[in-house]
Design brief:
By secondary structure, this protein is of the alpha+beta class. It has nine helices and 25 strands. Strands 3, 4, 5, 7, 10, 11, 12, 13, 14, 15, 21, 24 and 25 form a 13-stranded mixed beta sheet that branches. The longest helix is centred in the C-terminal third of the chain and has 18 residues, at 285-302.
């Protein structure tokens, strides 16, 4: 496995150490962070600096900025899960993360040309985090153990002072978006799906998830607050996220959680099978077969890590604003010593975003799809010694100035119709197109 790098801020300078390999990191304790906190005087996610990460996930609203500690490379997730946090006084609620974790779709060579300004896999402890827990709002500052609690407390005090004196953000003008016409897109998609169906007919694959990109022109660069609020309004049950890179951002509204790990248990979403809203989804054989394959794959992948696995026999319908999905929650009690890094290693990428058998599906995607997936269908979330949650980065886009590249996909199984799968991706694209102002 490749080694990575651990970076620590110290007195305004960045110091770097060689990070142990994945195999070596299994036997090591994670880094130590010092934490200072205060209840926020006003309910806001606005920070003293532009946010590097925003997440809205169920009851959690969170915004983070700056960088106190960076873990990179294949062992980053495991070290983040084993981090130790030191408080001068205990936080009265559970601390989210605190590491912002990002993993690519696959571990190939680089993320691709569409992803300049991003690196993965990484796990970053921010300098400052604002989050809501129920009706209470908290500001939290982090510092490496070498810098001490005094550094975290000073950073928190300075950040709160800057936030108190900062004028409210002006309301951004409404966005407008214009998808760029590409007359070759649909024929290329049809040819790709037909090639996949031939591989399925030969027995090389049972299912493969194919993706495509749509390029969109915007009236202005969206702000994190503007786009995340628009996505949260349209898709309140999804996990809305914004990840800031260098000169670009990655944002989306994902309906799928790869895993939540807390108190020795793991919960996963099996999400596969799609139809237009209100359609007879539970009666469509092709969609039910696609969904069952994902549930079975999740169970088989979790089996080496878990003592018991629970999943409903019949899926439910998850209704979003633009599509319906088949959904089954899979939960398990993890064996002692297993953590979010083990779960991610076993599950990612799931058959819901790759296919089955996974090795054959990944080979087909790499050889024929012709798309730099990068962080699309990768993982974003929060990792730490308490509660960790990783979400599959679906219904997402790379934002670069006044342009966006949207990513959507569809699962191909025996009986799939290329044009029907095209229409499914068009439906899925509405998640971001509407939030970006298409049609205005």
């Amino acid at each position: 496995m490749e080694s990575g790098e651990l970076r620590q801020r110290d007195s305004g300078m960045t110091r770097a150490w060689q990070q142990p390999s994945e195999s070596a990191s299994r036997s090591l304790a994670g880094p130590e962070l010092c934490v200072a906190w205060a209840e926020a005087p006003v309910p806001t996610l606005e920070l003293a600096a532009p946010p590097a990460f925003v997440l809205r996930s169920g009851a959690l609203d969170l915004s983070a900025s700056g960088e106190a500690l960076r873990l990179s490379g294949e062992g980053a997730l495991r070290l983040a899960a084993r981090a130790r946090v030191t408080f001068r006084r205990p936080l009265p609620v559970a601390l989210p993360g605190p590491f912002v974790a990002v993993l690519p779709f696959s571990g190939g060579a680089g993320l691709g040309t569409s992803w300049q300004g991003f690196t993965a896999p990484t796990a970053v402890a921010p300098e400052l985090m604002m989050f809501r827990d129920g009706a209470r709002w908290f500001a939290v500052s982090f510092a490496p153990a070498a810098a001490g609690l005094q550094r975290a407390e000073a950073s928190l005090e300075a950040a709160l002072a800057r936030m108190a004196s900062r004028a409210p953000l002006a309301e951004a003008p409404a966005l407008a978006a214009a998808p760029q016409d590409d007359p070759t897109a649909r024929p290329r998609w049809v040819a790709l799906v037909e090639r996949a169906l031939l591989s399925i007919a030969r027995g090389d694959l049972q299912k493969v998830v194919l993706a495509r990109a749509l390029d969109v022109g915007l009236s202005a660069p969206p702000s994190p607050q503007q786009l995340c609020a628009a996505l949260a309004r349209r898709f309140p049950t999804c996990r809305t996220f914004w990840l800031q890179g260098q000169g670009a951002a990655f944002a989306g509204a994902s309906p799928e959680t790869l895993a939540v790990v807390e108190h020795g248990r793991v919960r996963c979403d099996a999400l596969a099978g799609t139809a237009a809203p209100g359609g007879p989804l539970l009666g469509l054989d092709k969609e039910l077969r696609e969904h069952r394959a994902v549930v079975d794959d999740l169970r088989a992948s979790l089996a080496p890590l878990a003592d018991s696995i629970d999943a409903a026999q019949v899926p439910k319908v998850l209704s979003l604003a633009n599509v319906d999905h088949l959904h089954t929650e899979v939960s398990a009690r993890l064996r002692p010593g297993a953590d979010i890094a083990d779960v991610a290693e076993a599950l990612h990428p799931t058959s819901a975003v790759a296919g089955t058998p996974r090795p054959a599906a990944l080979r087909f995607i790499a050889e024929h799809e012709g798309l730099d997936r990068g962080l699309y269908a990768g993982l974003v979330g929060l990792v730490g010694p308490g509660r960790s949650e990783l979400h599959v980065a679906l219904r997402s886009a790379v934002l670069r100035g006044a342009s966006a590249r949207l990513f959507v996909g569809a699962g191909i199984v025996a009986g799939s119709d290329p044009l029907a799968e095209w229409e499914e991706t068009q439906l899925k694209a509405q998640a971001l197109l509407g939030a970006l102002g298409a049609g205005r």
